[in-house]
Amino acid sequence: MTAPSRLTVTGDEMKESSAIDPEPMVPARAGTDRPERAAEPAGAAPVELRADCIADSAGGLTFDLNAPQETPGAWSAALVLRLRGGDGADDEVRLPLGPNGAGRLRAVLPSTVPLAEGRWNAYADLGDGQDPRRLLPGLNDLRSLVDRRPLAGIGRLGVRIPYATKFGNLALRSWRRGPHAEAGDILVAPDGMTVSGRLYGAAPGAGARAEARARRDAASTDAAPATVTVPLTVEGTEFTFTLPYEELAARWEQGSEPWDLWLRPAEGARPVRLARLLDDVADKKQVFSYPALPVPSGTGRLRVGPYYTLDNDLAVRVAGPAED
Known about the structure:
Mean pLDDT: 85
Shape: elongated
Order of helices and strands: EEEEEEEEEEEEEEEEEHEEEEE
Distance between the termini: 20 Å
Strand content: 35-45%
Radius of gyration: 23 Å
Region (Disordered): 1-44
Structural class: mainly beta
Largest sheet: 11 strands, mixed
Number of domains: 2
Low-confidence stretches: 1-15, 26-41
Number of helices: 1
Protein name: Transferase
Helix content: under 10%
């Protein structure tokens, strides 16, 4: 759906952390943020290394690379994943890279190998004594990710989506959620929005509800509660709720205010962030667009509409008259 009106992005977006850290334009040596270029033989042009990616329905990925003719058959060859902005021991994952036919190398990232949430840059270490080289994206077969339906009772959901960065390099977007509330259809109406979805890793019970929480700092002077709750309609693990816009508009303070959406599966249960992860779109924010509709309030006409954050979490923005 394409929005007839767009909401202004504000500094609050900087709190959506995962996509803010800049991508290094060239490979960085492990343990340092200083970018370096792998040494090339004198007079030789750098060899482009491209990786085709195949996704499976369990969350695993297979990488097939073109192998340069001079590539040695080294047992130490590996596909290297580095968490952008990370510096810990768990922020680098090495996957064995072995021959897969003439001129091809293959590495497999099983669904059982955990990746922290964030963006992982992809490199190839060919075992030739050179620094790992940044990989470029090849052909992706992500059909298994479209409308993916894991088992509802899964304890922790892992999602990995390969994509091309703004510099044309290969990276993975990773999430680890458990439990997880997957957003589905969103119906936007003048008086509010209706959201349907599915809950993974938790069973809805008595007191199940959706919560909209204002993303405000501790200095807020709002005397009204910063949380709006609405009941869930539940059928098995499927849920639906309607969030009235007037409730959010009545609590508006100033500027453009984001409200994050959560699900509480039952009374006393831990809240679960509502997000859309189970498809082949790494960054929903620029792809899924919803209208911001006018909502009357005591301070004038506001505009309210849903959007996906940089982490693909679902949120609602309430924009004041100055943002109209």
